[in-house]
Structure formats: structure tokens, C-alpha cells
Amino acid sequence: MSPSEVLVDCRDAARTFGRGAAAVVAVHGATCAIRAGARIAITGPSGSGKSTLLHLMAGLEQPTSGEVRRPALGSSREIGLVFQGPSLIPALNVAENTALPLVLAGMSERRADDIARAALGRVDAADLADRLPEELSGGQGQRVAIARVLAFAPRLILADEPTGQLDRATGRHIVDVLLAAADETGAALVVTTHDPAVAERLATRRVMHEGRLLSTPEEES
């Protein structure tokens, strides 16, 4: 995997919700490339379009104009998503939650359980395997959500405000886990955040303002 390999290429990608007078432009013509091994923070206040841009990158939303290409990604399974809020199924324990996407993809339950438990170990959550989501703290729930992503060995991890509902100390730990996981697997990592302390942990920082992805000085020169 070459560091110059482009995983996601956004070209003037825009997303509008609604029509006519009620239309809201969430993202205006964003242009950016996510390369293999990248560590990118996208910052900006709530409502600035960060989450919508991430959803465009992931393929959860389709652009209303422009395009989003994923030239080096063979399928959506190569993209792992970590959301801000709870994303675990209440009736399943932690190991079952982590294994579920693998089972749905056709893997045997035994093999999926082995991979899920290994992924939980990589985020220091092996001891949580038999707990239900209601028995987890916010930070523990996010670690499990990250393990579920890692079980698929994605080439790109997209984390949408992963520390937004956590206290600062727990948030720092979650960023540690994300960075360590990306380093171990070689995945690119894109994190949206409104917290400068989180953004400073990533090598590249971009800013969203009123739906616009602002250029860096290097891009403007």
C-alpha cells in the first residue's frame, strides 16, 4: 500500500437537503483527497457540515453535485465508521455486537467470535466481552465500537465526533485507541471534532465553516 494511494477523492462534492425555499446546503463543493496512511482532523462547530462530509466520504450520503470517488477501495467493507452516539444493539453482549457485522457478511459464528474477541483485546476491552451495552460506560462503549470496526480490518477509519459525549480524560483515551488501531492496521484515519485538543493529535487539520471545507495554505499557494 503506497502512501500516495488515494482512498477517497472528493471533487466539488456538495450535499443539499430539501428543495426550493426549504433547501439547506450542508456541504458546498468540497474538494479533498484521503490518502493511504493519512491522519486527518476535520474541525468546526456543530452544524458546520463535518458529519455530512464524512457521510459523503463513506457513501452513506450521495452528493447532489460534484463527485466522490473511492479509487483504491474495493468495497464499503474497507471503510470503518465510528459514530458519536451509542451504536451497539442492546440485546447482544459486547462480543456478539463486535462479531455481528462479520456474521452478516457470511462468516461462521465461531470464526467471527474469534476475530471479535481478538479485536476487543486490541482496544483493551477483552474483559468486557460478556457484558451488555447497558453495563458499559460511555468510554467503554466507544472502545467496543472501535473494536467492531477493527474486526473488518478496514483501510479507512472515519470517526464522527468520537469523543463528543465523553469527558476529557476518557476522550483522550479514545483518541489514543483510534491512533494505535490505525497505526497497527495501517489504516487511514479521519476524525471530525470540535475539540482543538483532539485535532492537535492528528498530523493534518482541515476546517469546515458554514458547509465549506477551507483550503490549507499549501493548497492556496
Question: How are the secondary structure elements laid out?
Answer:
Elements: E1 6-17, E2 24-35, E3 39-43, H1 50-58, E4 65-69, E5 79-82, H2 94-104, H3 109-122, H4 138-150, E6 156-160, H5 168-185, E7 188-193, H6 196-199, E8 204-209, E9 212-213, H7 217-220
Parallel strand pairs: 3-7, 3-8, 5-6, 6-7
Antiparallel strand pairs: 1-2, 1-4, 8-9
Helix pairs in contact: 2-3, 2-4, 3-4, 4-5
| Helix-strand string | EEEHEEHHHEHEHEEH
Give the distance, in angstroms, between the N- and C-terminal Cα atoms.
Answer: 29 Å
Number of beta strands: 9
* Unreliable stretches: 217-221
Query: What integer is the average pLDDT?
Result: 91
CATH topology: Rossmann fold
Q: Main beta sheet, described?
A: 6 strands, mixed
- Total number of domains: 1
Kindly report the spatial arrangement of strands forming the biggest sheet. 5-6-7-3-8-9
Instruction: Give the CATH architecture.
Output: 3-Layer(aba) Sandwich
Helix/strand-derived category reads: alpha/beta
| CATH class identity | Alpha Beta
**Could you state the CATH homologous superfamily?**
P-loop containing nucleotide triphosphate hydrolases
Helical content stands at: 25-40%
How large a portion of the residues is in β-strands, by DSSP E? 25-35%
How many DSSP helices? 7
Looking at the structure, what is the overall shape? globular
Radius of gyration: 17 Å
